[in-house]
Design a protein that fits this description.
The complex is a heterodimer of chains A (315) and B (360).
Chain A (H helix, E strand, L loop, with lengths): L1 H31 L7 H19 L2 H25 L4 H24 L28 H5 L4 H19 L1 H11 L1 H6 L4 H27 L11 H11 L4 H23 L2 H4 L4 H19 L18
Chain B lengths: L6 H33 L4 H13 L3 H26 L7 H18 L5 H30 L3 H21 L32 H20 L1 H11 L1 H6 L4 H28 L10 H11 L4 H25 L5 H32 L1
Helix pairs in contact in B: 1-13, 2-12, 3-7, 3-8, 3-10, 3-11, 3-12, 4-5, 4-6, 4-10, 4-11, 5-6, 5-10, 7-8, 8-10, 11-12, 11-13, 12-13
The chains are: A mainly alpha (315), B mainly alpha (360).
């Protein structure tokens, strides 16, 4: 029995980690290119909202995911216009877009569904189901944890080594890293920094949109105000902890996902009533662990040299 | 361009361009929001009439309610303006406000038999200190260990909310209430109201007439204010001129926490008369938008707070009369901040052109 519980916990952690990995892969891409996008939280929220609404009305979670991708890309195109083309402050622009996403989804949800007095909020019934991988999913322990998940989990798990390879071993990866370290020099060497920053932002928009949609149509099956609950910021914190390395970032997101899955199980089990452990402390656990991780591992971390600095081409 | 005009004139032009930028932002935000109002099947002109004319400033009662809404926003955004000036990104005002409210209720309920003025002072001071204490953790982590305060303050918002939720369902819960809320404070700790029949409480006047001028003086007229701006504009220059960046970071964060905590204490004392989970509808985040919309300047922040107070207060009348969801206030808030950030180069371009033309 305890082994089954442990497998269930690990399986849930991998599921919860999936959106964090996708969003993190996107953010690493733009940060390595020199852009700090604090709008990630907002992009995930917009993805969660658009994914939910479209799935709700079309009945197809795949069309929902597609909508989330498009909305995420559109939001990041705006971010790109403001920070790359207008060279505005990236911190302020990112925070502004996150607040914008929060306000827009808060309003639109009510404009679409009205004031919900029913105790059960509208939810989607057609969700993205697991696609077990033949043979691999029947391996004990590893099978259910890693190979009986949704297609998005496989994509997220594959995206990390892929991202690592692209950044470390390919020409475009080198160009991205160069743009993040010294855009001036990259420019002299023939890299179109502006184009590259836009492209990485569009990729992040798509990934962040999917990440958000997975929260609403794969994990919760409904939309809740600010349901991303800081995950966009936590992903960026994990990137800092992982020193902009996709593999180390994965460990950080696993920590959060594990704590989040654990707290749900603590709440669901009878532990709370037995040992009077307030449920709020369970809810707090993932945030508290992230904070502690930041304090222990996050001291004096230096990112890409030009991270957050607007690049104006001298002509 | 800059050398063709003298310093005073270009500074004036810069200030005017910022004011213009904020006005453009408000205009564009209201214009964009009117599309959503139209989509919801209402006439935008009528809807804004209900929001601003009828709802926010229609008569003395509604105008006071606008100030009631504006006061916590003003306190939070004044503090954030100080922190943001030094480019210290305190995103944790919401949590600091909640900690202030929690401690205010706790201290208020433990104070027995003190005269009203003493009790109120102690209660509000402790709320401000609680907000500052909550801000001290990310401040020290940033100053001592270079841990980015954006992430620590965001995370600490959630920790604060769960902590408050724990106290309101546990140790501080009103045993006779069916909601997670504290018992009601004794009437001696209710913020006095200045006019019978409206919620014009002392805290509104203190925020506008005392704290706003103090923050203005601090930011514009003191060495500390100059150092804030220096650290924000050019940390290297600040370091070379002998400014201890760490202490500026900590102090600016403490001031923002202090004022956010005080906002929470005032809400508990003047509005709710108890601590509740619904103490703030996101004033801590509205404060971020307002600080930026007010260009981090105390006078600008005051005006921007009244604008957002009017939007939030007026959104209820808009909802009642034009059937637009109350969330419209937060849509406008989100649009305003994006346009405020984006309008900076536009308004600067307009003004720079004028400056050059007038100099010729």
């Amino acid at each position: 029995m305890p082994i089954e519980m442990a497998i269930d916990l690990m399986r849930a952690a991998v599921r919860v980690m999936t959106p964090l990995l996708l969003a993190g892969a996107g953010e690493i891409l733009v940060e390595r290119c020199g852009i700090l996008n604090l709008g990630l939280e907002g992009i995930m929220l917009l993805g969660a909202f658009s994914g939910f609404i479209v799935t709700y009305y079309t009945g197809s979670p795949w069309i929902g995911v597609l909508a989330a991708i498009l909305v995420g890309m559109a939001a990041n195109a705006i971010f790109g216009f403001m920070t790359v083309s207008l060279a505005l402050d990236q911190v302020v622009t990112g925070l502004a877009l996150t607040l914008m996403a929060s306000g827009a989804t808060f309003y639109l949800y009510r404009a679409i569904f009205g004031w919900y007095t029913s105790p059960v909020p509208p939810h989607v019934t057609t969700v993205i189901r697991e696609t077990p991988i033949p043979l691999l999913s029947s391996i004990p322990v590893i099978g259910p944890v890693l190979f009986n998940q949704t297609a998005f989990t496989y994509a997220a798990l594959l995206s990390i080594p892929l991202l690592y390879f692209v950044l470390a071993r390919t020409r475009v990866g080198l160009e991205i890293t160069a743009s993040g370290e010294d855009p001036q020099v990259a420019d002299y060497l023939g890299v179109d920094v502006v184009r590259l920053r836009y492209l990485t932002l569009l990729a992040e928009g798509a990934l962040g949109g999917v990440a958000g949609a997975l929260l609403s149509i794969s994990q919760y099956n409904m939309f809740l105000d600010n349901m991303t609950a800081g995950r966009g910021f936590i992903v960026i914190a994990m990137i800092i902890l992982g020193r902009w390395d996709p593999l180390k970032m994965t460990l950080g997101t696993l920590l959060f996902a594990f704590a989040d899955s654990l707290q749900l199980r603590i709440q669901a089990s009878g532990l709370l009533t037995l040992a009077w452990f307030p449920y709020q402390f369970a809810l707090m656990l993932p945030y508290l662990l992230t904070l502690i991780a930041l304090v222990i591992v996050g001291r004096g971390v230096k990112g890409p040299a030009s991270l957050g600095k607007p690049y104006k081409r001298l002509r | 361009m800059g050398d063709s005009v003298d310093g005073g004139e270009s500074l004036m032009a810069l200030r005017l361009s910022r004011v213009l930028g904020s006005l453009i932002a408000i205009g564009l935000a209201l214009l964009t929001a009117s599309l959503f109002i139209g989509l919801a099947g209402a006439n935008p002109v009528r809807a804004y009439y209900y929001m601003f004319v009828k709802g926010a400033f229609g008569n003395s009662v509604t105008a006071v309610e606008t100030l009631v809404r504006a006061t916590p926003i003003l306190l939070v955004s004044l503090g954030l303006a100080v922190a943001f000036t030094a480019r210290v990104w305190n995103i944790g005002a919401e949590g600091q406000l909640y900690m202030g409210g929690l401690v205010a209720a706790w201290v208020g309920l433990s104070l027995g038999g003190l005269p009203s003025s003493v009790g109120l002072t102690v209660m509000l001071l402790s709320s401000a200190l609680a907000g500052a204490a909550w801000a001290l953790i990310p401040a020290v982590l940033r100053a001592k260990y270079e841990i980015n305060e954006i992430f620590t303050t965001v995370i600490m918002n959630y920790i604060a909310l769960y902590l408050v939720s724990y106290f309101l369902t546990g140790p501080l819960r009103d045993p006779v209430s069916q909601f997670p809320e504290s018992p009601t404070l004794p009437q001696s700790l209710w913020m006095p109201r200045l006019v019978q029949g409206v919620r014009l409480h002392l805290g509104i006047l203190v925020a506008i007439l005392v704290i706003t001028p103090i923050v203005h003086f601090l930011r514009e007229k003191t060495t500390f204010g100059f150092r804030l701006k220096l650290v924000g504009a050019n940390p290297e220059a600040a370091r070379y001129s002998g400014t201890d960046i760490g202490s500026i970071v900590v102090l600016s964060m403490l001031i923002s926490g202090l004022l956010a905590g005080l906002a929470g204490g005032i809400e508990v004392s003047a509005i709710q008369h108890k601590m509740r989970m619904e103490l703030s509808p996101g004033y801590g985040f509205t404060g971020i938008a307002v600080a930026l919309l007010g260009n981090l300047n105390a006078v600008g922040v005051l005006l921007a707070s009244i604008f957002m107070g009017a939007v939030i207060n007026g959104s209820y009348t808009m909802h009642r009369m034009a059937h637009i969801p109350v969330g419209m206030a937060y849509l406008i808030q989100g649009l305003v901040i994006v346009f405020a950030v984006a309008s900076e180069p536009i308004s600067e371009r307009i003004f720079r052109k004028e400056v050059v033309e007038s100099a010729d």
